[in-house]
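Form 7-S
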Amino acid sequence: MSPVTPGLRVVVVGGGVIGLACADELVMAGHDVTVCDPRPGGGSTYAAAGMLAPGGEAWFGEEALLRLGIDSLARWPAFAASLAERSGHHLDLRSTGTVLVAADRDDLAEVHRACRLLDASGVRVEELDRRALRAAEPMLSGRVVGGALLPDDRHVNPRRVADALLAVLGDRVVRARATPEPDGVVLDDGSRLRAEVVVLATGATGMPHVRPVRGEAVRLRSRPSPARVLRARVHGERVYVVPRAHGELLIGATEEEHPADDGDPLPTLGGVARLLETARALIPGLATAELLEVVARDRPGSPDNGPLLGPVPGTGSARLVLAGGHHRGGVLLAPVTAATVRAHVDGLAVPPAAQAFNPQRFDRPNDTDRHTDRDTDRNEEPCA
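Output:
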């Protein structure tokens, strides 16, 4: 489809999965696009689990975010097929669903509560008793009491997605830090790139209303390994286990608020130990798994846990469009974010599910410092 205004000069600031997906969409729409990032693919995308699981992330009071996730999940097969064909990269996209697991009766009550929300939202969910749960995933501890299957969930390897996007974008990616200015961006060496549109996709820093939320994750190798994504409550502690190719597993993820100037994120002994202890209680066989990597990154959190998608007022000649604040959902929401940004750039209809996430919603009084209940209730919430 040809752009409404063909051949705009666009600079995307930020080379995570969101910025790269937006850049790819705009290139395919016929625009002249440059991406600026000193470490493309090296931020929260590098540590993400890649769960394409709006149902698993659903929370009361965030029904609009659930609808956005459902929209983006439906876009993923075509998005992945196109990207894999054009890049020649295998993304390890899997459609095996998610199993929610409860270790005790209190945990099971929370699973049942989530199932009621999902059922009311039209998300397919199958509740499982202990026997059915063990049949669905034999590696689980014999002490689990029940759970549920979300059969429509998918997952993907975010590092492979980033590598594929970098491959198709090629020399459009400039490995430099960029700061928006009225007529484009200025790079850290003082040079300038003129643009008619600047897309700000800077992750956890450099965007209004976005704050860093630190998360730690552990990468293991285990044979055998679970067949599906496991999202569990183990005596109140939350953990997820995501299978990848060659017997690899990603175990995650802690969640902790940090000030923006707190320096580079580093894993902590307490956080990693808590993850591993919870994962071993869930899957005793992980005691013999090989430890491959421990990572920590900052997620881009927003006041209501939803992304900021759309233009913001400016005084310069370059239009500024935000694509940030995706918190745990960056990988899941990449396709719908790219479509939304393209709609704003080209004056097309914005996807209905994205209309609730205009950045100006936070400009209303008393909104900018509001956080939803899950910020306080979910101290160990996964990041996708």
